[in-house]
Amino acid sequence: MIMFKIFINEFKNNNFLSKTQFNNHQIIYNNYKNNLNLFLIEKKIFLKNKLELIDIISDLPENEKNQFSYILGGYLNHEYFFKNISFNKNFCFGEIKNKILKTFNSYQNFEFNFIKCLQNFIGWGWVVINNKKLCILKTYENNNPMYPISLGGFNSVPLLCIDLHEHSYIIDYTNNKNLYISNFLKNINWYEVENRYQNYLLNI
Ligand SMILES: [Fe+2]
Q1: Domain Manganese/iron superoxide dismutase C-terminal, which positions (predicted)?
Q2: What top-level class would CATH report for the domain 17-204?
Q3: Distance, CA 62 to ligand 1 centroid (Å)?
Q4: Which of 17, 35, 53, 57 has the most crowded CB, counting CB atoms within 10 A?
């Protein structure tokens, strides 16, 4: 039986998140991890990796599907989010940069669309790749873009994730969600995003 763990960023002083905001959010992420492990133990579900978990949702009884997809998404989505934020300065580069420029014409236009699309949304914001196309998407509740459409997903590969729930910014930004999103854009771990994109390219 494997127990799932949380990914922990090494916190450094930065202009994006305070230590308090960051720690409070990690507690929420950790709770999803605990609930996921508990659910798997209770149901005696033994798996080797996280992505297999998505496949088993459809095998669960109807009354457990929503509960499980919510816990699993809460865990997976936070992992995507925490892995793709950075407290070190780095810039968009590589194949993902080329793809963004091709899709949005300029990096500024990508940022503009990202903020415009997500500023009034409560849930999760994503840049995904689907059928070789780059898109900005939103998912409700804790749905993950890899989930099938019947479960609120898009059968898409997540490249970049932002948590748009109030708990992810309220301490630092009160209601200024726009500023939260634009600061997020300045603190992306582009090595992680490039890595996700390269993995996608290797598997198509
Ligand atoms: Fe969150």
Answers
A1: 94-196
A2: alpha beta
A3: 26
A4: 17
